[in-house]
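Glutamine--fructose-6-phosphate aminotransferase [isomerizing], pasting as requested.
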Amino acid sequence: EKGGYKHFMAKEIAEQPAVLGDALRHYLGEEGTRIELPGDIDFSGVTRITMVACGTAYLACLTAKYWIERLAGLPVDVDVASEFRYREPPIPGGTLAVFVSQSGETADTLAALRYCAGRADRIVSVVNVAESSIARESDLALPILAGAEIGVASTKAFTCQLGVLALLALEAARQCGRLSPAALADHLTALRAMPGRFNAALALQDRIEALARRLAEVTDVLFLGRGAMYPLALEGALKLKEISYIHAEGYASGELKHGPIALVEKTVPVIVMAPHDRLFDKTVSNMQEVMARGGPVLLITDARGAAEAGSGVWETLVLPEAPELFAPMLYALPVQLLAYHTAVAKGTDVDQPRNLAKSVTVE
Ligand code: F6R
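Structure tokens follow.
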């Protein structure tokens, strides 16, 4: 059932072009020009969105915050469920509450949802398991249609969560009158092109495997990203530590000089995720600060970024160019592959990492 792959995680990484394509087609109809969310979600009375999840699903929410705020102009709060549920934050009228969970059974996320029931105007969940508790207890459940995810480390669920959250952001923007039909059509075209770009990212597999053999020898790794690449830096660190047991931290690039730069030395690789977007120059200058202190930099960028980054980086991985908005979905793939191949090089139990469970139904 691993379909010829050595691990479920490898299979699930490879499935992403297909499952994201299916998920987008499901919500965009055959022509792919209209967003058709079930239950006609109405943003007219919505003044803010609160998003709650755990782990990788939380990082999908953090990415979506950039999209929703930029596209729809609605303020978005994102919390980890275990903090949210005990903080018991005020939920003002006009709040749309969104819960994201692959399993739909995560105890803290479910408890946070129950806290919002009767307080938030509407409860929407983004789940992989359509018959799950979180789906059942929501006003509206949006399935991500990733198919069963067996590997404990979440991969295809993350990119499909991002796909559905991108559609939610675009629909909110449309209803808020912030997207012309032409602009929406452009975004949808760009989104539909993402699965094809995923294939180009998967084609980097051999290079990533070679890099991973080097990563397998270190004990600490830093990930840096700016803007919507910041949550991806966190995701890169989470994925690497969970399956390879290498200590990894993700930081917003701009936070580097506020502490983590003290860790930089030649034995600590710094993985910088920087597509050539409007924030590129800022991130490159952070990268140069790392290199000036002898830190080996692995730059993940696109062709323009690679051309402009200058010399001195340890290695560069070149991804296809992607629209700024949706680049985080694409950059998820090399990050997953790096974690996967590093874990394989170390000989860890990739699909069943120590101490972790696929579904965390106790708090
Ligand atoms: C990371 C991972 C976990 C889950 C988290 C939430 O690779 O798999 O961090 O993302 O336990 O699980 P769900 O999405 O089922 O609520």
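Note for the archive: The first strand starts at residue 48 and ends at 53.
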